[in-house]
Amino acid sequence: MDLQLKNKVAIITGASRGIGRSIAQTLSAEGMNLVIAARSRELLDEVAKSCDSEVIPVALDLRDEASPQQLIKIAADHFGRIDVLVNNAGATKRGDFLELTEADWKDGFDLKFFSAVRCTRAAWPHLKANKGSVVNIVGIGGRTGNAEFSIGGSVNAAMLNLTKVLADRGVTDGIRVNAINPGSIATDRLQTRLKTFATENNIPIAEAAKEMALKQGIGRFGTPEEIARVVTFMASPAAEYCQGSVVDVDGGQTRTL
């Protein structure tokens, strides 16, 4: 299927590894030119080399208030247009609610929620001019609370509401805004948790993966590529009637309505 993305321009935050890296590679394979952002220039350069289209790596810290505006300006100045914004940046600290610090909470909201707010606000005029789209990578923790994921769950819930708010505004301005909720995806962060679980239970990694998946009520963990394919569809004109949609890509882990 031709998703009509060739020669269009996408910005992807948190693109140096995991889901963001796969999103960059998949959108590039569809012929999109990219601006990819993260803190590590070395990792971004590796992603750029793995892509098929023109890719501009931008190393910056999106927790800094000025960075989102800088990122959008680089994209607009270089390519002259912005068609898609993928807000993917942000990892939040897990742990006991009573032990998480003010700094932990601030870091979680700054990197994921406020960077998405600022990037979207700066990109909005360009997206409006091109009838573009925003795809927010959120997470199922925003719908189902977990005692060990209080920061991430709160940030994700805010991201889901932001998606609905921006989608409402997007109806007027011709910008589609949607969200994707990944479940347990086999990224570096999950591999770290698997190793810890395997060590604590004195079992092989493969067995640990099966047991952890079973505890979550799923058959297996997902892959970054599976999230990237859904992002590509949601970013394309093929999904033009999706507005404010929240798509759970979690292997059936979320069982609530």
Number of domains: 2
**Largest sheet at a glance?**
7 strands, parallel
Q: Which regions have little confidence, pLDDT < 50, spanning 5+ residues?
A: none
Principal-axes shape call: globular
CATH architecture of the largest domain: 3-Layer(aba) Sandwich
One letter per element, helices H and strands E, the order comes to: EHEHEHEHEHEHHHE
Number of helical runs? 8
CATH superfamily of the largest domain: NAD(P)-binding Rossmann-like Domain
Strand content: 5-15%
Radius of gyration of CA atoms, rounded to a whole number: 18 Å
Number of strands: 7
Strands ordered across the widest β-sheet: 3-2-1-4-5-6-7
The N- and C-terminal alpha carbons lie at a distance of 31 Å
Provide the helix percentage: 40-55%
CATH fold category name of the largest domain: Rossmann fold
Q: What structural class should be given to the helix and strand makeup?
A: alpha/beta
Mean of the pLDDT scores? Answer: 96
What is the CATH class name of the largest domain?
Alpha Beta
Give a description of the structure.
The chain has 257 residues and is an alpha/beta fold. The protein folds into 2 domains: 203 residues, 3-Layer(aba) Sandwich (Rossmann fold), CATH 3.40.50.720; 36 residues, no CATH class. It contains 8 helices and 7 strands; from the N terminus they run βαβαβαβαβαβαααβ. It has a 7-stranded parallel sheet, sandwiched between helices. It is globular, with a radius of gyration of 18 Å. The chain starts with 8 loop residues before the first strand and ends in an 8-residue tail after the last strand. The model has no long low-confidence stretch (mean pLDDT 96).
